[in-house]
Amino acid sequence: MKRLLTLAFAALLLTGGTMRAASAADTIGTVDYDKLVRSYNKAQIFQDDMKSKRADLEKMNADFIKQIREAKTKQPNNPVAVEQLQKSLEEKLESKANEYGNLQESQAKALENEMNNTIEAVAKSKSLSIILAKQTVFVGGTDITNDVLSKLNAGTTGPASTDK
Q1: Which residues pair with 28 in a beta bridge?
Q2: pTM of the full predicted structure?
Q3: 19 in a structural domain
Q4: Letter string b/e over residues 85-118, b meaning 16 or more CB atoms within 10 A of that residue's CB
Q5: Which domain holds residue 97?
Q6: With contact defined as beta carbons under 8 Å apart, do 154 and 43 qualify?
Q7: Tell me, what CATH number does 50's domain have?
């Protein structure tokens, strides 16, 4: 009898533990952050803008190289003037690169905050206590990626498509 009672008690504990584990699994959510970045309209606009700024810097650099070559050709006996021109152009390029870098950093941080705040809001609305990267979860969890994307993209339009 004592043995039967012990078995029954052990079974009860195991069942309760399994229920708690299942309950805990139900409060875990997942999000595919890569998909958010690929599909969030503002993130796409940001990436397009950064590509454009990189292209501007490359064009500016090519133009400066051309100016330096022309100066060397026109003033072959005045290396000081050529050197001053080169230094001036390098400073302009560096200043523009720093400006773009600072802008990129602040905009990227703002986008990341928006995405993280939206993930938290969706998780809270679904009573999820933990959100993990979808790529790290083999089985289980509630995927909230599409809900987060819907909320992020609500009221925004995608990047302008350019036909080239």
Answers
A1: 130
A2: 0.69
A3: no
A4: bbeebeeeeeeeeeebeeeeeebeeebeeebeeb
A5: 29-153
A6: no
A7: 3.30.910
